[in-house]
């Protein structure tokens, strides 16, 4: 009987391999960062070959470091940064251009052109998404329009497209597949049919032959080659849906918030898609084997943990990301300033690519500590905006928020989050719920776990934060935030 399930978590800044046991506990982990490439303002790219090298390395290291043989693994699941788009040569496996990252805003002109007829929401009824630079479809169009020779080669069936899940699975197994959650982030999949939509492909000028086959999130896609030789690759979920699954949000009305490079709140809405009127995304939650698909509402925030990295790398305010908490604790409050990190526009609930980052309310009193504190508070304010939109769309009043991701170990932020939301914030025992969700999907596909009840039994609470702030103070602070956001709009022409 195999002992573990492996998860490959291909994220925005790094790639990890984590081994989980039957109790959903972490047995071993290895992580490697990759380069962030910024060719022009607003452009963000990754080298996909470097990412594949990192993937092989973390898999090798995690097996070697834990003394595990690939025969100890029941299956491997994949989870990935969503919307990061790659086009590669079917014969050689060589990318025709760097991967264009989800934060990249170069497709602004394409999206604006498409919005001229029917507005920003013209594709929402089919895709659940607004026209925005965030999604993969316009990025594919950009490659075909701007990289010489690619359109012709794509039409001749020589090129393949995938989000990073497809790239990793293709390199592992030779199969060109994706799952419903990743496909739902392209602006090309119809939420009702769970298939690529001919009208949308025509609108964006993308040949269907480029696109991967859409499969369930829990399904055996193929056997791995190389270091994982013979192991079934059996789970595939975009990172935020994987976290929803890893947090065992299997019931309608259950929600989670992941604090990573960006911040992403998902609410399970069951087997029917709920169209948003409040600037949220209607998206796939997951699809397990032959069971009906489960939908979600999502609030996506572009910059949260990335703001802490910016304080570290661009300003040199801190040595390492974890230092931000002590620096923020060196002051009583934000000193009257707000930091709106609209580095690549604002995502939910605004969807404004014309916004740019701003620190407002500056006086001579303000010091490094206030800037650090305002940076952390920005994450909590943005989360409240998304939560209010979610409650308006779903009619469900959230009673507690399950949280995960790297920033949940920042106690100051978690307390402020509970204060500004006025609901308890709960951190689970395993905070790596993104990788755990991919492992669960893979394990279910091969019978390592039998059902949802086994997964629910694994979930345990590590810590809970209760709201402590006075109501008046909470509303005053949030009103200041809303005022600050207004100052960032209409910045780029």
Fold and architecture overview:
By secondary structure, the chain is an alpha+beta fold. The chain contains 16 helices and 23 strands. The chain has helices spanning 48-66, 108-115, 124-127, 136-146, 150-155, 164-173, 180-183, 198-204, 239-246, 305-313, 323-329, 368-394, 411-421, 433-445, 452-458, 471-488, and strands spanning 4-10, 14-20, 26-33, 45-46, 73-80, 86-89, 99-100, 159-162, 177-179, 189-190, 195-196, 213-215, 218-223, 232-238, 255-259, 263-270, 281-286, 294-301, 338-340, 358-360, 401-404, 425-428, 461-465. The strands form 7 sheets. The chain has a 7-stranded mixed β-sheet. A 6-stranded mixed β-sheet has the order 3-2-1-5-14-13, sandwiched between helices. A two-stranded antiparallel ribbon has the order 4-7. It starts with a strand and ends in a 5-residue tail after the last helix.
Please state the structural category.
Answer: alpha+beta
Mean pLDDT: 93
Strand content: 15-25%
The N- to C-terminal Cα distance equals: 61 Å
- Low-confidence spans: none
Q: Provide the helix percentage.
A: 25-40%
Largest sheet: 7 strands, mixed
Overall shape: it is globular
Q: For the CA atoms, what is the radius of gyration?
A: 21 Å
Number of E strands: 23
Number of helices: 16
For the biggest β-sheet, the strand order reads 17-18-16-15-21-22-23
Outline:
This protein has helices spanning 48-66, 108-115, 124-127, 136-146, 150-155, 164-173, 180-183, 198-204, 239-246, 305-313, 323-329, 368-394, 411-421, 433-445, 452-458, 471-488; strands at 4-10, 14-20, 26-33, 45-46, 73-80, 86-89, 99-100, 159-162, 177-179, 189-190, 195-196, 213-215, 218-223, 232-238, 255-259, 263-270, 281-286, 294-301, 338-340, 358-360, 401-404, 425-428, 461-465.
């Amino acid at each position: 009987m195999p002992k573990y399930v492996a998860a490959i978590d291909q994220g925005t800044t790094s790639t990890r391999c984590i081994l989980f046991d039957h109790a959903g506990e972490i047995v071993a982990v290895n992580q490697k960062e990759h380069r962030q490439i910024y060719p022009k303002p607003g452009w963000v790219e990754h080298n996909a070959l470097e990412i594949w090298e990192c993937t092989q390395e973390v898999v090798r290291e995690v097996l070697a470091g834990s003394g595990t043989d690939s025969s100890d693994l029941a299956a491997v699941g994949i989870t990935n940064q969503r919307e990061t788009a790659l086009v590669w040569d079917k014969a050689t496996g060589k990318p025709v251009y760097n991967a264009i990252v989800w934060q990249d805003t170069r497709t602004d002109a394409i999206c604006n052109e498409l919005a001229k007829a029917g507005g920003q929401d013209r594709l929402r009824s089919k895709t659940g998404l607004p026209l925005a630079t965030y999604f993969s479809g316009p990025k594919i169009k950009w490659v075909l329009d701007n990289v010489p020779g690619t359109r012709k080669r794509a039409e001749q069936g020589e090129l393949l497209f995938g989000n990073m899940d497809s790239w990793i699975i293709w390199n592992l197994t030779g199969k060109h597949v994706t799952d419903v959650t990743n496909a739902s982030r392209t602006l090309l999949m119809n939420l009702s049919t769970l298939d690529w939509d001919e009208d949308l492909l025509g609108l964006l000028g993308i040949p269907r032959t480029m696109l991967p086959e859409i499969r369930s999130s829990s399904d055996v896609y193929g056997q791995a080659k190389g270091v994982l030789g013979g192991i079934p690759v059996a789970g595939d979920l975009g990172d935020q849906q994987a976290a929803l699954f890893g947090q065992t949000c299997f019931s309608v009305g259950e929600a989670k918030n992941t604090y990573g490079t960006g911040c992403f709140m998902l609410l399970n809405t069951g087997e029917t898609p709920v169209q948003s009127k409040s600037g949220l995304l209607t998206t796939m939650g997951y699809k397990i084997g032959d069971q009906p698909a489960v939908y979600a509402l999502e609030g996506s925030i572009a910059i949260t943990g990335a703001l802490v990295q910016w304080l570290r790398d661009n300003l040199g305010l801190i040595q390492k990301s974890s230092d931000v908490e002590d620096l923020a604790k060196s002051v009583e409050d934000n000193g009257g300033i707000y930091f709106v990190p609209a580095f690549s526009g604002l995502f939910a609930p605004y969807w404004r690519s014309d916004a740019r980052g701003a620190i407002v309310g500056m006086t001579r009193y303000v010091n490094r500590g206030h800037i650090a504190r305002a940076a952390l508070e920005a994450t909590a304010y943005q989360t409240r905006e998304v939560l209010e939109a979610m409650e308006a769309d779903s009619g469900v009043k959230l009673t507690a928020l399950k949280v995960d991701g790297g920033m949940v170990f920042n106690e100051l932020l978690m307390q402020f989050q509970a204060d500004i939301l006025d609901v308890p914030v709960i951190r689970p025992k395993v905070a790596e719920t993104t990788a755990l969700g991919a492992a669960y999907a893979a394990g279910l596909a091969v019978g390592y776990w039998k059902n949802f009840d086994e997964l629910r039994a694994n979930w345990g609470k590590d810590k809970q934060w209760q709201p402590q702030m006075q109501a008046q103070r909470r509303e005053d602070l949030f009103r200041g935030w809303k005022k600050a956001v207004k100052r960032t709009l209409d910045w780029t022409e």
